[in-house]
Amino acid sequence: MNRAIVILGATLAVAACVADRPRSDPGQAVFDSLCAACHGSGGQGDGRVATDLPVPPADLTALAAANGGTFPREAVMAQVYGKLGRYHDSIMPEYGPLFDGATVTVASADGRQVERPRALVELVDYVETLQQ
After folding, report:
1. Of 25, 68, 71, 125, which cross-links 64 as Cys (Cβ 3.0–4.6 Å)?
2. What is the distance between the alpha carbons of residues 53 and 43, in angstroms, rounded to a whole number?
3. What is the dihedral of CA 41, 119, 85, 39, to 10 degrees?
4. What's 45-100 look like in SS3?
5. Confidence at residue 109, expressed as pLDDT on a 0 to 100 scale
6. Which domain of life is it from (predicted)?
7. Separation CA 6–CA 43 (nearest Å)
C-alpha cells in the first residue's frame, strides 16, 4: 500500500476522533472559576459557600423565567461586570477588571453595536444555556 495513503488515512481517523470530542466551553470555564462556588455548578444558587453568605445567591437557571421568558442579557452582563461602589449595595463581587482583554462586538437591547469583553460575553452566553 502506498505510504501516502496510509498517512492520509491515519490523519483522517485522528481528525474524526477529535471532531467527535466535546469542545470545552470557554464561558463554562469562566463560570466554574468565578461563579460556581456561590451559584453552584448548575447555577441554582447551591454552591459550596452559598450557606455561608448573608444573602442567598441567585438561581441563575430562572433568570429568563423571571423576566417574562426573555433572558436579561444586558442586566446579567452589568451585574457580573459591576460598577464602582456597588459593594455598598450588593454582596456580588465586581468582576470587571478580570475581563480586561479581547473584546467582541455585540448587539445591545436597543440594537446598537457595542464592544464588550469577550470573556464576559462567553460567560453570559453560558449562563443563558442554564435557563429552564
Report:
1. 71
2. 16
3. -10
4. CCCCCHHHCCCCCCCHHHCCHHHCCCCCHHHHHHHHHCCCCHHHCCCCCCCHHHHC
5. 85
6. Bacteria
7. 47
Strand-pairing partners, residue 103, are 117
**Rounded distance, CA 45 to CA 63, Å?**
12
131 vs 86, residue with greater confidence: 131
How far apart CA 54 and CA 128 sit, in angstroms, is 26
Yes or no: say if 66 and 60 are a contact pair by the CB < 8 Å rule: no
Question: Which among 70, 68, 71, 74 has a CA at the least distance from the CA of 109?
Answer: 74
User: Which amino acid type is present at position 22?
Assistant: P
